[in-house]
Predict the structure.
Amino acid sequence: MDVHNAFLHGDLSETVFMLQPPGFKDPSKLNHVCRLKKAIYGLKQAPRAWFIVLKAAITHLHFLQSKADPSLFIYSIDSLKCYLLVYIDDLVITGNNPVFVTNVI
C-alpha cells in the first residue's frame, strides 16, 4: 500500500524556519519567515519525522521492530503472524490471517 502525503505527517523536533512561499508573502511583512511545526516535502528531516510517527502507530498495534532490519515490524501471538515492511512511503503487509491483515490496513 502507498501512504499519500506521508512526509506531511511528521512533527519536527528541531526549530526550522523557511522563507515565505511565493504567492503567500505578506506585503506588509516581507522580511518575516515561517516557523515550521510539521514536516514538508524537500525538508531533510521529513523522512525521519515520518518514520517516527509511523513507528509509534505500528508499535501501538503490538508489532515489534525487527533487530535485523528496522524497517520490518512483526506481529506474532500464538499462531497468528503478520509482517509489515516499510519502504519510504510504501508498506508491504502480509500474514497468515487475511482478516487480521485487513484490520491492520
In short: Residues 6-104 form one domain.
